[in-house]
Design goal:
Length: about 70
């Protein structure tokens, strides 16, 4: 059952990426797709080197969760 069609260039998976909580949906492509992946752990390892950006990330994460 199709719930939502993602347009070219769209981002998906941000809820899980930001919160670290389990995903709430799955995605399947209808045709060929080029997907770029940045793991949450790689992102956290990088952003922790930038305290101001890490604080912004934590604020966004907390707003999404709560």
């Amino acid at each position: 059952k199709l719930f939502y069609k993602i347009k070219k260039g769209a981002i998906f998976g941000e809820y899980t990426f930001i919160t670290g909580l389990f995903r709430q949906s799955s995605i399947t492509t209808a045709e060929y797709a080029h997907i770029q992946i940045l793991t949450r752990q790689d992102f956290l390892d990088i952003v922790k080197n930038f305290p101001d950006d890490f604080e912004k990330y934590c604020m966004i994460r907390d707003k999404v969760i709560f």
